[in-house]
Amino acid sequence: MDPQSSSQISYVFRTPRGKSTVANIPLTASYDTFLRSLLERAAHIDREFDDAQSVNYQMSRLTIGVHRKLVQEAGRLVRRRTDLNRYVENRACQNCDEHTREASYNRTGELDSESNYNCSSCITSFSNSSVNFSNLAYVVLNGKVLGRNEYEHLTQKFSESPSPETVHHISLRVRMRGGVDRQNRVGSKFGGGGVSSEQQSERERKERLRQLALETVDLAKDPYLMRNHLGTYECKLCLTLHTNEGNYLAHTQGKKHQAGLARRAAMEAKLQGKQDVGPSLPVQTTTKTVQRVKIGRPGYEISKSRHHETNQRCLSFQLHFPEIDANCQPRHRFMSAFEQRKESPPDRRYQYLLIAAEPYETVAFKIPNEKIDREEGKFVTNWNEKERTFTLTLYFVDDVTQKM
């Protein structure tokens, strides 16, 4: 970096394509203006290089082929060469007549529209656009990125003590935007597997995200995930089908699955009687059955008789519970043949009378499946706590009784 005057600094830098050039930047220029000037100068140098390459390519095409083809294409190729052959000339700035800069002109004498720039002193007068040049390129000085603070410190240090002997070499680098450049990459080496396509990169990205998700989520504890016989995965909450675990994990973050979870949570909250969710249902009290050691079956006596007036059939059951728990009384119920699991197939002609008391085993008596008379005095139960005997007497409704 060599100072030419008290108001400008000449930067020797290398363009992104490897060409060396010089740019004159005012001391008062901001960091964005500094980057903009370097980008304009680099684009100008690289464009001249491309034009020279195009001219060499056209000349090489003129020397190849038969004479007839050369005559047919000579006029067009020479005309194209004339358009591409520009020369450089110093012209005055379009804003001020004091400074000059290099501008590109073609042979017709017309100024190239792409090189119609102002001088370095008038760069600061440009209207600042919405483009953030720090997002487009960055500058490297002595192996480190020259940021905004470093640039201001460098210009302030130079303005305080300008030194003509100091030379700084900088490099302009363009930021790569939009991911991997798949068009201008070099070829792969032998045995390297080839250059990955967009589909392969997308597949690799999904697999990487799936592995990261599996590290944080344990699918073995997911109550809604089910793997069917086809090897695919099903969501039992939403009744959806998924090809792999990653697809199911993406589904769990979707709107449908989240809405199903919220609906399930609201339903469970209502069953538990929470008032903050909505109108609560009556709380269902569940009693836990305690497993106790059974001491065997109680002793029992069965007697058959008939009523002395109606001649109804009567069954009387008397059971003895000498080891019954304190403050406990035997209980009874009727069970149909289809409820029991002891006899198979069930016989619908019979029903079962069950009598239970702790710590004895529950006993069942097989009786005819007929209607039982529930009138007063026809169905009697009695528990004698002193003798610890339980008596149950029942009468069947006969056809004669129904007719009466």
What ranges have pLDDT less than 50 throughout 5 or more consecutive residues?
62-92, 97-118, 120-129, 277-281
Helix fraction by DSSP (H/I, runs of at least 4): 25-40%
The amount of beta strand, in percent, is 15-25%
N- to C-terminal separation?
A: 128 Å
Question: Any idea what the radius of gyration is?
Answer: 50 Å
Structural class: alpha+beta
Q: Largest sheet, order of strands side by side? A: 2-1-7-5-6
GO biological process, one term: spliceosomal complex assembly
Region (Disordered): 183-205
Organism: Chaetoceros tenuissimus
Protein name: Matrin-type domain-containing protein
Keywords:
404 residues; alpha+beta; five-stranded mixed sheet; four-stranded antiparallel sheet; 7 helices; 17 strands; 28% helix; rod-shaped
Write the layout of secondary structure elements.
Elements (H helix, E strand, L loop, with lengths): L7 E7 L5 E7 L4 H32 L4 H18 L2 E6 L7 E6 L31 E5 L2 E2 L2 H13 L8 E6 L23 H19 L8 E3 L5 E3 L4 E3 L2 H8 L2 H17 L27 E8 L6 E8 L10 E6 L13 E7 L6 E6 L11 E5 L4 E7 L3 H5 L1
Parallel strand pairs: 1-7
Antiparallel strand pairs: 1-2, 3-4, 5-6, 5-7, 8-9, 9-10, 11-12, 12-17, 13-14, 14-15, 16-17
Helix pairs in contact: 1-2
Overview of this protein structure:
InterPro entries: Matrin/U1-C_Znf_C2H2, Matrin/U1-like-C_Znf_C2H2, SF3A2, SF3A2_dom, Znf_C2H2_sf, Znf_C2H2_type. By secondary structure, the protein is of the alpha+beta class. It is 28% helix and 24% strand. The chain contains seven helices and 17 strands. It has helices at residues 31-62, 67-84, 148-160, 198-216, 245-252, 255-271, 399-403, and strands spanning 8-14, 20-26, 87-92, 100-105, 137-141, 144-145, 169-174, 225-227, 233-235, 240-242, 299-306, 313-320, 331-336, 350-356, 363-368, 380-384, 389-395. It has a five-stranded mixed beta sheet, with helices on one face. The protein has a four-stranded antiparallel beta sheet with strand order 11-12-17-16, with no helix packed on it. It has a three-stranded antiparallel beta sheet with strand order 8-9-10. A hairpin with a 5-residue loop joins β1 (8-14) and β2. α1 packs antiparallel against α2.
